[in-house]
Each structure stands twice: as structure tokens, then as C-alpha cells.
UniProtKB/TrEMBL annotation, chain A:
Keywords: Phosphoprotein
Lineage: superkingdom: Bacteria
Protein known as: Response regulator receiver domain-containing protein
Pfam families from the UniProt entry: Response_reg
Post-translational modification 4-aspartylphosphate, affected residues: 60
GO terms of biological process kind: phosphorelay signal transduction system
Signal peptide: none
InterPro entries: Bact_response_regulator, CheY-like_superfamily, Sig_transdc_resp-reg_receiver
Species in which this protein is naturally found: Tahibacter aquaticus
Residues covered by the Response regulatory domain: 3-126
UniProt cross-references to SMART domains, sorted A to Z: REC (SM00448)
From TrEMBL, chain B:
Name this polypeptide is given: histidine kinase
Broad EC category: transferase
EC number: 2.7.13.3
Gene Ontology terms for molecular function: phosphorelay sensor kinase activity
Length: 184, 381
């Protein structure tokens, strides 16, 4: 289940997006389904984002109170791995620049939108996010394993310092320790 | 020479820096101060001014020949770093052909044209600034109507599929078996028939509303610009003007303020509708911009004797007393560069006065601003 937060102050946009996005076949989403959560105002969206985690946020640019750019930046501060898509019926260059630089959006979708383009953007955003998360998980794993290795190395070195030759002990099949006669 | 024009001619000559003598026959009728100074310097400051002037003229004539062609001449004086202009038997134009105001009228007409152009370009500039909001207002409904049509197509494909399924079941001979019933039921479930039945009318209603909104915005734009009509003095419903103007600026206003209309009973008012709408736009946009977070804009109208009044009041940041004195000055603006031309209110002032009306402002910093426009119901013939 992918959780997608949709934010627009225009209720009809929310229903149109719901109709459109609920038709994405699960086969395009690694067999997952989309759960679409509408928010009619940026304030509602922020409240939801404090309480719950989302995989993707789609927000309108021009909304009362908080702009879409500020909203996405704010949600990204709380949930860094949430994918972000901005929509707008009109945006000048300045607005798009701040959207990319500040809110680090994944896609900008103009209104009126092309239904297929929007679905593709949603699918790609979720894939991209999954790759990021996977990448993060693997990097953590590597770091953790390397950390374990380093701890083992350090322990071995300490033992070797205390009891030289200890780490180089050899045993026979029965577990008895070989003792080189030269060392005695 | 007509008596009345002489002092004017002399005054004009006196204002010229070049030494000038006005001659009538061989008499010096007038010498301007520059000529007097020249004559003085030539004579070494001695003797009678009249005499010195005569000497000056004689000297000119001797240096440049007696027969002076033409009526006015600029004569360089040999050996002097000066020139003397002579006006010979100069007669100002006859009274009938005098600057009887026709030139002034021409200048006035030209000024009026320039002002019309200024009003027009200001209107275009403010439309340009409103373009973002208008595009947003139009693209939102178009966006969801367009998307809904795509969904509708999918719904229809599903419904056609269901009809085909029913058809094939019906056309099979024999009684309705539970298996056939189940086939139809399965098909219905697959297309989520229940949801479809519930959602389809809603989809159509929303789309219709969207199209209505676009239609209204286009209508408002047309009312605002009046491009479909010649701009002539006409009887106009100011409430309609206010409403269509609010439609144009709605995207600037709706995020900032609730708009409360307290319309009185207004008669039709003789005015230039698109120019009056322009005044409304300027004041409404200013009102919205004066509100920082969320506020209220009240639009009131009413009549008083032979006039109508329109009040637009906001509870925004207000205008400092120093600025209040200058808000109708051209190019005066407190908005950041690119946000205002500084011409809006000055042009509004011009428009209202062209209507023989009055525009006044009251403001308290921190409390809000009220503009009051008073217009006569009819223009004097």
C-alpha cells in the first residue's frame, strides 16, 4: 500500500485526481495499491503529515495561507523520504526555481494536466522513492557490517597485544592446540 | 499693429537672449534688453539710448547694405562677438488669425490622446499582473474537467462492456440460469458498478460547474475590457461592473480576504464602463495587497442626491500619513519594483475626475483603508 497525500484548495480537483489516480493498475506499482488521502487546505495537510507517514505528496502551488512550495518543504523537513510533486495552473520561472531548490520537488505538473503523464509521474516518483529507500537501507547495512568487522578486528588486535601469538593459534582436528617446539 | 498684441510681442522679444530690434520704417519701435545692453557696450556707456540704437541700426545697414531683404534678419556684427537681429515692419497676425485657441485645442486633444493611451496601457499592465491569477482561475477548472472527461471515457468503456455482456446473456436461448446471472454479477463487480453509478452523475455535475466557471471568467474579462463595444458614454450598472471586476481579481483576493457586498439601490450611471471598472480593479487589488494574512474587504454602494457613491474598505495595513498625501501622484508607489507601476491610483483619479466625480481616501495605519468614489448619475450635457 502506497499512501499518497493530495493537497488542493479546490475540492473538484481532489475528486478528479482521485478518479484519475485510482485507475493506476497495481501491476505498475509492484503489485501495491494506492491509498489516496485528500486534504482541502495546506493546514489540514500539515496536520496529517505530523501524525502519519506518506510515500508521496502532490500539492497545488497557489493555496490560501501556505504556498505549495512552503508546504512541500515543511513536509520534507519532517519526512525526508516523501516524494514530492507540485501542480499549478500558472507558475512563473521564479516559482519553479524555488520549488526545485527549496522543496526539491520530483516533478512539476502543469494544470490542465495530461492524465497519463500524471499517472506516470506518480509511478516514477514512487519507484524513485523506493530506490532511494533501498539505497539507504543497503548503505546502512554496509556501514553496520563494516562496523562489526571493525569491532572484531580491534578485539583481535587487543588480544594479540596481551597474548602475542594468541590469534595465530592452530588447532588439530580434535581441537588440541599445536605448540611449535621452537616457541618454547 | 493692433494695440492689444503689441505688449505681448514686446514681452516675447524681451524674453529672447539675442539682441533684437523691432523696426517700423526707419524707426526703432522696440529694443529688447539684450539689444540695449549691446548698444550700451558699443557706445562705451555714453550718450542717449535712442541715439545709440540708431547708430547700431545704421552700422548694421552700412555693413550689410541698405536693402535688407526679408522681414527678419540675423546680422553678425563685424569685430564684435555678437549678432543683432532685426525685425522689419513686423506685424503680428491679424486678430482673426491670432492664436485664438485652436493651437491650444490641438494641444489639449493631443494631451487627451496621450492620457487615453496611458489609461489603456495601465489597464493592460494591470491585466498583465493579474494574468497569473486569471490563468490559475481558468486552468484549475479546465484541469479537472479535462481529467474528468478521461475518466468518463473509461467509465463508458466499462458500461459498454457490461451492456455487451448482458446482451450476450440475453441472446442465449433458454431460461436464466444461476451461472448466467453470476456472469453478469461478476462483470458488474469487476467494473465496480455500484461506485460508477454513484460517481458518474457527480463527475458530470462537477465538470459542468467547471465549464460554468470558465465561461464566467471569460464573460468577466469581456465586461472588464469591453473589447466588444466602442468605449462610449453609456448607462451602466455599476454593481455588474463591481461583480465582474471582482471576478477578474478573484485570485488575488480570495486567499487574502472575505469580500462582503453591501450594495444599495443604484440607478444606471452614465459613465465610461471599462474605465470605471479599471478604477475598481486598482482599488480592489490594492486592498487585497494591503492585507497581510487574512482580512475583509467591504464593498458598499449607495446614492446621495444626484450622485452615487461606492466605498471599498479593507482592514489591511493602512497607509502612513506621509504617503497618504501622495497616493494619487503619478509614479508614486510603495510596492516593490515590478509589483506596481505607480500609475494605478493617479489614473483612477484622472478617470473619476473625467466623470466629474470625486475620489477620496481615509486610512489609519494598522486599521485599514477606505476609498470612496462619488459619481454624478448623469453627465452635464
Amino acid at each position: 500500500m502506497y499512501r499518497v497525500l493530495i493537497v488542493d484548495d479546490e475540492p473538484n480537483i481532489l475528486t478528479a485526481l482521485r478518479r484519475n489516480l485510482s485507475n493506476i493498475p497495481p501491476s505498475m506499482l509492484d503489485g501495491e495499491r494506492l491509498e489516496l488521502i485528500p486534504a482541502n487546505s495546506p493546514e489540514d495537510a500539515l496536520q496529517l503529515a505530523v501524525a502519519e507517514n506518506f510515500d508521496l505528496v502532490i500539492a497545488d502551488l497557489r493555496m490560501p495561507g501556505i504556498s505549495g512550495v512552503d508546504l512541500l518543504a515543511e513536509i520534507a523537513a519532517r519526512q525526508p523520504y516523501v516524494a514530492r510533486i507540485l501542480m499549478s495552473g500558472y507558475a512563473d520561472l521564479e516559482a519553479i526555481i524555488t520549488a526545485v531548490n527549496q522543496a526539491r520537488i520530483f516533478r512539476f505538473i502543469p494544470k490542465p494536466w495530461n492524465d497519463n503523464d500524471l499517472r506516470m509521474a506518480v509511478v516514477q516518483a514512487l519507484h524513485y522513492r523506493a530506490i532511494l529507500l533501498e539505497n539507504q537501507r543497503l548503505a546502512d547495512l554496509v556501514r553496520a557490517q563494516r562496523g562489526q568487522l571493525e569491532r572484531q578486528d580491534a578485539e583481535l588486535r587487543r588480544l594479540e597485544m596481551e597474548h602475542p601469538g594468541l590469534t595465530r593459534l592452530e588447532r588439530d582436528e580434535s581441537g588440541a592446540i599445536f605448540i611449535d617446539e621452537d616457541d618454547l | 499693429m493692433p494695440q492689444s498684441s503689441t505688449p505681448r510681442l514686446h514681452a516675447a522679444l524681451d524674453a529672447v537672449g539675442t539682441p533684437l530690434l523691432l523696426l517700423q520704417g526707419s524707426q526703432v519701435a522696440h529694443a529688447n534688453p539684450a539689444a540695449l545692453r549691446l548698444a550700451e557696450s558699443l557706445a562705451g556707456g555714453q550718450g542717449d539710448p535712442e541715439l545709440r540704437l540708431r547708430e547700431l541700426v545704421d552700422r548694421c545697414r552700412s555693413e550689410h547694405g541698405n536693402a535688407l531683404p526679408g522681414r527678419s534678419l540675423l546680422l553678425p556684427l563685424a569685430g564684435e562677438d555678437a549678432a543683432l537681429a532685426l525685425l522689419l515692419d513686423y506685424e503680428p497676425l491679424a486678430p482673426a488669425a491670432q492664436p485664438d485657441g485652436s493651437e491650444l485645442e490641438l494641444a489639449l486633444a493631443r494631451l487627451n490622446t496621450v492620457q487615453e493611451q496611458l489609461v489603456q496601457s495601465e489597464k493592460m499592465a494591470s491585466l498583465g499582473q493579474l494574468a497569473a491569477g486569471i490563468a490559475h482561475e481558468i486552468n484549475n477548472p479546465i484541469g479537472y474537467v479535462h481529467s474528468n472527461l478521461g475518466t468518463l471515457q473509461e467509465y463508458l468503456n466499462n458500461l459498454f462492456g457490461l451492456i455487451e455482456c448482458c446482451d450476450s446473456v440475453i441472446s442465449q436461448q433458454g431460461v436464466m440460469t444461476p451461472e448466467r446471472r453470476a456472469e453478469v454479477a461478476e462483470r458488474k463487480r469487476a467494473i465496480d458498478f455500484g461506485f460508477l453509478v454513484q460517481d458518474l452523475p457527480q463527475l458530470l455535475a462537477e465538470s459542468r460547474e467547471g465549464i460554468d466557471r470558465v465561461r464566467r471568467i471569460v464573460q468577466d474579462l469581456r465586461d472588464f475590457s469591453r473589447v466588444d463595444r466602442l468605449e462610449t458614454w453609456s448607462l451602466y450598472d455599476l454593481h455588474r461592473g463591481l461583480d465582474s471586476t471582482l471576478g477578474i481579481v478573484w485570485n488575488e483576493v480570495k486567499y487574502k480576504a472575505e469580500v462582503r457586498k453591501e450594495y444599495g439601490n443604484l440607478p444606471l450611471v452614465e459613465c465610461l464602463p471599462s474605465q470605471i471598472n479599471q478604477v475598481f480593479v486598482n482599488i480592489l487589488v490594492n486592498a487585497a495587497q494591503a492585507i497581510e494574512q487574512r482580512g475583509e474587504i467591504v464593498v458598499r454602494t449607495g446614492t446621495l442626491n444626484d450622485t452615487v457613491w461606492i466605498e471599498i474598505a479593507d482592514n489591511g495595513s493602512g497607509i502612513a500619513a506621509d504617503n497618504l498625501k501622495r497616493i494619487f501622484d503619478p509614479f508614486f508607489t510603495t510596492k516593490p519594483v515590478g509589483k506596481g507601476t505607480g500609475l494605478g491610483l493617479s489614473i483612477s483619479y484622472g478617470i473619476v475626475h473625467k466623470h466629474h466625480g470625486d475620489i477620496a481616501v481615509e486610512s489609519q495605519p494598522g486599521r485599514g483603508t477606505t476609498f470612496r468614489i462619488v459619481l454624478p448619475q448623469r453627465q452635464a450635457a
